[in-house]
Amino acid sequence: MAELTLSSKNPTGVKVDALVVGTQTTSDGVAVVGDDLPRDVVAELEALAPALGITGARDEVRTVPAGAHLKAGVLVLTGLGARDGSGSFPAETLRRAAGAAVRELTGASSVAVALPAADEAEVAAIAEGALLGAYSFTRYRDAAGAASTKTAGGVSTIEVLTSLARGAKAKAAVERAATIAAAVHATRDLVNTAPNDLFPAAFADIAKAAAKGTGVKVTVLDEKALAAGGYGGILAVGQGSSRGPRLVKVSYSPSRPHAKVALVGKGITFDSGGISIKPAKGMEAMKSDMAGAAAVLHTVLAASRLGLPVAVTGWLCLAENMPSGTAQRPSDVITIRGGKTVEVLNTDAEGRLVMADGLVAAIEENPDVVLDVATLTGAQMVALGTRVSAVMGTESVRSEVVAAAESAGEQFWPMPLPEELAASMKSKVADIANIGDRFGGMLVAGLFLQEFVGSTPWAHLDIAGPSFNEGSAFGYTPVGGTGVAVRTLVELLEARAAK
Ligand code: BES
Ligand code: MN
Ligand code: ZN
């Protein structure tokens, strides 16, 4: 990850490859905003803006020569839109503007960001956005290839310029932002990793390696241990693959915790659909079907790095869903840990099977709250699109997730679990079937999980669309794995810690 520093230097004198400043829309055109920019530079840019097609709108990024008055190589103008009623910019606007500017840099190694920050929280948002925008995934490119594809991966240092730089509060806020950005990057890396490299046992090894030296304990249940423990869901989904399933428990246990939180993540390292095979078109995106488990792993590690006084246990439900002679069949009846039986009518509704085992295991340890994160349904995208995640479950926990997402700058929207839909999962032979009504498919999946939760306060996060960006990059969000849910979960843990 790029190195981030805070500095109170004047933007005029910073010797960097690129200097990022803001543009805003005003009633009479465009204004250039950035602390301490020379007046003549501002006046010249504002005069040129119309001819350059610069409007100051959000998501607009333009690079221009820095000119003789500045020591920087190029000037990057990033749009902030209009100021809100209170005269400031929302934190998420600053985060996205900083991210978009850094993301668009292709030849720069050193960057300084001079965006308007009114307080430490805004400084941190700018830092976080810049770091999130500086992501690139180059594992599968040779050095020459990486150069020819021009990514923001070349950015090695980011200086955030602010008059608040010297304060301890700003330093702490930026340190937190860097920890969170690193967790998001690591989550993206896992999601982007090809499924021939990332299979359940490999994921478990990565979890162990990532936890080394952090004090976070990683326990791996292999197939033998899963069979002994009665984890019928994870085993059934994994049985079609030559690369067996795993359940990985990742525990962060500080002394005298204020709360005990369980996180359960869906980790299907590839979802072909199994015998109920998916169409070829778009199947490649199913390497991202482990995004929930990736987010859970890196949230637990971030909680430990931040030293939060909250005990957090993550459960990574890892399996590869493949069709084969050993795969489960539609009409198989399986037994989830704890004894409930499920008739598997569609092997492509596999996420809820592995998550049921994970939820049961998590709840056995009596957490105060359990949150599950899963790329569970295509219906999530039908309902909310590809940028807004859904949250279902206990009303208070659902609200807690929405509030945490709002402060973190992620979009989570509350959805209901209508009781009457549950009847559609009636099975002729088992306690429940793994599919029900097609309409409201996301809610049906949530209701299925609810059957395994009991009375523990719980929220289910469906991140199917937002976890993997199949379109173009925007703001600080790259193409491919996005790392969604990490920031919301960390924020929620911090809120619990403060209680
Ligand atoms: N992993 C998919 C859901 C998904 C689809 C995530 C597209 C991201 C993008 C899940 O396992 C699945 O296949 N769900 C089925 C359920 C159906 C068979 C009831 C679906 O949504 O079609
Ligand atoms: Mn599936
Ligand atoms: Zn799936």
What would your notes on this structure say?
- The protein is 34% helix and 22% strand.
- It has 499 residues and is an alpha/beta fold.
- The protein folds into two domains: 3-166, Leucine Aminopeptidase, subunit E, domain 1 (3-Layer(aba) Sandwich), CATH 3.40.220; 188-498, Aminopeptidase (3-Layer(aba) Sandwich), CATH 3.40.630.10.
- The strands form four sheets. Strands 8-9-11-10-14-18-15-16 form an eight-stranded mixed beta sheet, sandwiched between helices. Strands 1, 2, 3, 4, 5, 6 and 7 form a seven-stranded mixed beta sheet that branches. A three-stranded mixed beta sheet has the order 12-13-17, covered by helices on one side.
- Strand 12 (332-335) and strand 13 (341-344) form a beta hairpin.
- It is elongated, with a radius of gyration of 24 Å.
- The two termini are 32 Å apart.
**In order across it, which strands form the biggest sheet?**
8-9-11-10-14-18-15-16
State the CATH superfamily name of the largest domain: Zn peptidases
Derived structural class? alpha/beta
Count the domains: 2
Bound ligands, named by name, code or SMILES: ligand BES, manganese (II) ion, zinc ion
Rg calc: 24 Å
Count of extended strands? 20
Mean pLDDT across the residues is: 96
If classified by CATH, what would the architecture of the largest domain be?
3-Layer(aba) Sandwich
Overall shape? elongated
Q: Give the N-to-C terminal Cα separation.
A: 32 Å
